[in-house]
């Protein structure tokens, strides 16, 4: 058996013994899509934790997931008038969106960010 044949046999064997991979992010977005109130709670929780270490990045990730659940970046771009590239950039882990951009994105997604009063 040649090295390539052996590698092909191992590769085939590996795929037969393991279940297909699951895109957990896609499943989570489906959950957010199915339950809009859960999506709002999820986003509100991320907003409450924004001052924690990594909180801004976590909030932007949460908002990006909710945007995907509410029609995707293309739909939010159409509703808000913001360019798709601007939305992608704003909601990236290194994003630094202005309050105006956040307002336009959340308005287009039908989300209202509300402060939590202790």
Structure description:
The protein has 118 residues and is an all-alpha fold. The chain has helices at 3-17, 24-34, 36-48, 55-69, 72-80, 84-90, 99-109. The mean pLDDT is 86.
Order of helices and strands: HHHHHHH
Strand percentage: under 5%
Q: Note the total helix count.
A: 7
The percent range for helix content is 55-70%
Shape: globular
| Biggest sheet character | none
N-C termini distance: 69 Å
Using the CA coordinates, give the radius of gyration.
20 Å
Mean pLDDT: 86
Number of strands: 0
Low-confidence stretches: none
Structural class, please? mainly alpha
Quick overview of this protein structure:
The chain has 118 residues and is mostly helical. It has seven helices and no strands.
Write the layout of secondary structure elements.
Layout lengths: L2 H15 L6 H11 L1 H13 L6 H15 L2 H9 L3 H7 L8 H11 L9
Write out key terms for the chains shown:
118 residues, mainly alpha, globular
């Amino acid at each position: 058996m040649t090295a390539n044949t052996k590698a092909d046999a191992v590769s085939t064997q590996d795929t037969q013994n393991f279940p297909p991979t699951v895109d957990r992010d896609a499943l989570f977005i489906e959950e957010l899509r199915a339950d809009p109130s859960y999506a709002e709670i999820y986003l509100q929780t991320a907003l409450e934790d924004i001052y924690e270490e990594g909180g801004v990045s976590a909030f932007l990730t949460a908002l990006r997931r909710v945007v995907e659940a509410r029609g995707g970046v293309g739909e939010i771009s159409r509703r808000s008038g913001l360019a798709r590239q601007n939305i992608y950039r704003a909601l990236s882990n290194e994003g630094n969106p202005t309050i105006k951009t956040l307002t336009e994105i959340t308005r287009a997604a039908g989300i209202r960010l509300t402060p939590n009063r202790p």
